[in-house]
């Protein structure tokens, strides 16, 4: 396998977790097409990249000035860092990461739930990518 596949997957996953486009799902599917036997490694690399990108978004959210929460965002306070298990959802996940930073949730609570959310994203894609590749 070409030496640039995994770093490319990592970079794509990292960018996908920020406001920049990254298409990590396509990068994962392409990797799995060429190396389906390495699905676990691919999921771990993509999860690491996407988690680190999400943490960057959390950090940026911490730089935003605090304001009063609207009633529409009160559920974030109720669910707290557990809501980051939805960080895999496109667009919404980026907003959740920024909100986690804006709300100054503790890192020790943010990191595990962010990992769970990002891991779920890629684990859900593996069967779909393998089926599309005919495996």
Can you put this structure into words, describing what you see?
The chain has 135 residues and is an all-alpha fold. It has one domain. The chain contains 6 helices and no strands. The chain has helices at 5-16, 24-34, 39-62, 74-79, 92-102, 107-132. The radius of gyration is 16 Å and the shape is elongated. The mean pLDDT is 89. This is Membrane protein.
What's the SSE blueprint?
Layout: H1 5-16, H2 24-34, H3 39-62, H4 74-79, H5 92-102, H6 107-132
Task: Give the gist of this structure.
With 135 residues, this protein is mostly helical. The protein contains six helices and no strands.
Give the helix/strand class: mainly alpha
N-to-C SSE series?
HHHHHH
* End-to-end Cα distance: 18 Å
Give the helix proportion (percent range): 55-70%
Total domain count: 1
Number of discrete helical segments: 6
Number of strands: 0
Report mean pLDDT, rounded to a whole number: 89
Main sheet, how many strands, which sense, barrel? Answer: none
Backbone CA Rg:
16 Å
Please state roughly what percent of the residues sit in beta strands, choosing from under 5%, 5-15%, 15-25%, 25-35%, 35-45% or over 45%.
under 5%
Uncertain regions: pLDDT < 50 for 5+ in a row?
none
Protein name: Membrane protein
Keywords: Membrane, Transmembrane, Transmembrane helix
